[in-house]
Design a protein that fits this description.
This protein is mainly α and about 100 residues long. The chain has 2 domains: about 60 residues, no CATH class; about 30 residues. It contains 4 helices and no strands. Helix 1 runs antiparallel to helix 4.
Length: about 100
Amino acid sequence: MLYDEEWSQLAEPLGNIFGLIKKVRREQGLPLPEAVNVAGLEALTRYRELTGFVETNVNALWHHRLSLFGPPCQSCGKPLRTPSAKHCAECGAARV
């Protein structure tokens, strides 16, 4: 998971991803899955530099932002699915 300060380093390459995919497909003639991998290389590289984890799916990076989730559940410790969640999706405990 990334803090917002770290996420901001991925915002630019991810924000341009659709334009890059189109450009890669047009210039290199790659099928869509391969073009996504090529276009997402900069974002994946930055993520690896920040975390040390080698993510291979550029689409997964959209979900690695800590502020999208709520605090840890007081019962099981898993993060709540949203900051405003009333119950834990993992164990069903009510948010205290």
